[in-house]
Every structure is written in structure tokens, then in C-alpha cells.
Amino acid sequence: MEKASGSPSSPASLRWEILRRSFLSRSSPEPDHASQKSTKIVSRKAAGGFKLISCHPLRGHLSEDLGTSPRTKDLAGHRDVCICYKLPVASVPNLTLVFKIPQAGPTSTDGRCGISYPFAMLTKCIDRQRMEDCIDLNDFQISTGYSIDTTGLVCCWPSEDVLAYFCISHLDMFRSKRVLELGSGYGLAGLAIAASSDACEVVISDGNPQVVDYIQRNISVNAGAFGNTKVKSMTLHWNEEPASDILNSFDIIVASDCTFFKEFHESLARIVKSLLKYSEGSEAIFLSPKRGDSLDKFLENIMEAGLQYELVEKYDSRVWNLHQNFLEGRDTSWPNYLKDHCYPLLVKITHHEPEQPCHLSL
């Protein structure tokens, strides 16, 4: 039975329409204005999310901005764009992150960027290289081959910005600690911790080999910003047993927006338990929106894994005020902002307190 003309479409069907249009845009140069209008109703695209860390695109090629050594020239290709982040910490150098621009299809009539990179002006840097909502099928092939998702390649997600800001606001917790970022994407939070704190070591990990390649590039680009902190990348699949030399070796684990896919919840909880130290003060810091029952289901897995957690809604006054402004319409820079999908809750995960031995008095 066909849907009556003019009847409203469900959010689910509109999101399928986003995917359909992504594929069809490869073969048709004509824009589908009706489709574009309907998908804006449910799209969660954001020009900069909470915008807690100031950033801007570098206008030239990376080698022009950072030097001309052969090593530097190899760090960013013609399909990459570089973003400079100014961390809100005195005497800390700026960070430069290299982002992948997915392969463009046929020439677009309007040439706008269809993905949410971390700064609105970035679209002007890549408008001739990336068409609206185009999908790079190579990314899906790699995703299928490694049983991973491709979200780490899409953008620096808003929760990552919040995580980086939260970590910068609590630098003392990282002093002399060994830190791991899980599912890091391009690695903003891990790099910010390494550049701003006195951490002993920061390991920035992801399960996607393409993402890990970009993490390593970003570590190399910013090598001079880390002081005495050791920084390295790592390919880490949550559904595989980690190497014995890293078991229960991290004082702090951080992650953002890693609880969306329910099929990864059990393995994610297990990897946290396997890698987090059994010591006082050791904890995992997660920042994730609720997204229906997704976060709740993950927390169930945390409990089943023998871990304990604390869920905090209001953990930073600035983040909370921005959230309230988006929610109540006082700030309209984030279209379609919804608390359930956009506001990251803070989850602190620890091992259970060891039971004290019972001493009998004779």
C-alpha cells in the first residue's frame, strides 16, 4: 500500500533517505531539493557542536604550515585537510590535526560539504573536493573486512570536543598516569591530554586501521608539543584479547561517543575491565549521549562485567549552560539539537572495591 501523498514520513524512513541520496548522488548531477529538505528534519549535522575548543582550518598544505622536511610532507595528502586547535591552557602550543576528506563523486552543483567537520569555515576549504552527502565505498569495504564501524573517519564528533575540554579542565588527574583513549577517531582528546598534562604516557587507540594511520600522523605532526609525555597510537579491537603486556596497566581510560552501537557493548565493557588498573584512583571516563536506551544497555553490560559506575548529568557549568541554551532555543547554531541524541552524559567506571577480610575477635 503506497503512502498517501503529503503524509509525514517517520524519522527512520527519512534517515534511510539520507543513505539513499548518498548513493544516488554519485550518478546524478541534479540536486533533489525535495529530498534535501525532508532530510534536514532529522539530520544531526553540526558545524561545531559545543565549540569548547577554538579551531580553524589551515589555509595552505600542511608542509607549508609546519615545515618542508620530507617527513612532514608525507603527513597530509591532497585528500586531507588540517585543523589548528588552540587549547585553553596557558603556554601550551596549538595542536594540528589531519582529517581525511572522503573521495568525491561527480561534480556537485552547489559543492557544499556534507559531513560535520569541527568548524563551519572548513567547508570552504573542501567544497570542490567533497560533494553533498557522498559516501566513500572503500571505507565500507574496510569496515566489513575488520568488523568495525567507520564513524572515526567522519569527523571530530561533539562528544570528543566535550571530552577534550573536560580532560583539560581536570589536568591533575593525569599527573604521572598512564592514559588510554578508546575509539579515539582522530585523537583530539588524547592529544590534548598529552600536550596539556604531565601524564607519563598516552596511548591513542582505535579499531579501524585507517583511523590509526591518521592518529599516528597527528602524533607525528604534534611531536614537539608533548614534553616528557610518551605518546603512541595503537590498533585495538575490543572483541579481541589484548596483548598480555597491557592487561590492567592503565590508570585512566577515556572515551567519547563509543556506546552508540549495542553490538559492541559487551566487548567494550570487557576491554575496559581488562585494561583498567586495579588500584585506587584508577577509572574510565566516558562521555556519551543517551540515544534512546543505548547508554542504559551499555551500563547494564558494565555491571555484568563486574565493574561499577557513576552517572553524572551536570559535570561542568559551561557545558551545561551551552546545553540549556541549545535546548531552550536561546542559541540556534545547532539545528535539531535534542538532549537524548546530543548532550553527552559523564560516566565514571571503576573496579569494585575489594571486600575487606572479616576479622573475628577471640
UniProtKB/TrEMBL annotation:
SUPFAM superfamilies listed in its UniProt record: S-adenosyl-L-methionine-dependent methyltransferases
CC per GO annotation: cytoplasm; nucleus
Gene Ontology BP annotations: methylation
CDD domains the UniProt entry points to: AdoMet_MTases
InterPro entries in UniProt: CaM-Lys-N-MeTrfase, Methyltransf_16, SAM-dependent_MTases_sf
Keywords assigned: Cytoplasm, Methyltransferase, Nucleus, Transferase
Classification via Gene3D superfamilies: Vaccinia Virus protein VP39
Major localization class: cytoplasm
Protein name per its UniProtKB record: Calmodulin-lysine N-methyltransferase
Lineage of producing organism: Eukaryota, Viridiplantae, Streptophyta, Embryophyta, Tracheophyta
